[in-house]
Amino acid sequence: QLQLVESGGGLVQPGGSLRLSCAASGFTLDYYAVGWFRQAPGKEREGVSCISMNGAITNYAESAKGRFTISRDNAKRTVYLQLSSLKPEDTAIYYCAAGQLCVNWRAEHLDYWGQGTPVTVSS
User: Fold this and answer.
1) Cβ contacts of 44 within 8 Å, gap of 6 or more
2) Which of 63, 85, 91, 107 has its CA 20 to 30 A from that of 16?
3) What residues have CB less than 8 Å from 56, skipping those under 6 apart?
4) Torsion sign across C-alpha atoms 122, 21, 83, 116
């Protein structure tokens, strides 16, 4: 089965950190740009960060710059999103998606989506 599987979400206090993982199953991730998106309750899904196929290019939404770091390990078919200095407004379901390219901080022409992992930032 061809799919992306996210993990690593959870409950964290403001100022805390989490590392999200996005693992590809049934296909190689080498030929895809990968983006992280999030959807907060009652809001539209928004792009957070995107990484190019070889990891040379990374882009971030303004809300993520300086706090989030995207990386990838193609040998493990996994993309990571390190979340730091978390704020309550970062609370959302975080999704990864594999696509053809990054357009700024969004992956576009998407072929695969994960099921999402929840992140809750609360004291």
Assistant:
1) none
2) 107
3) none
4) negative
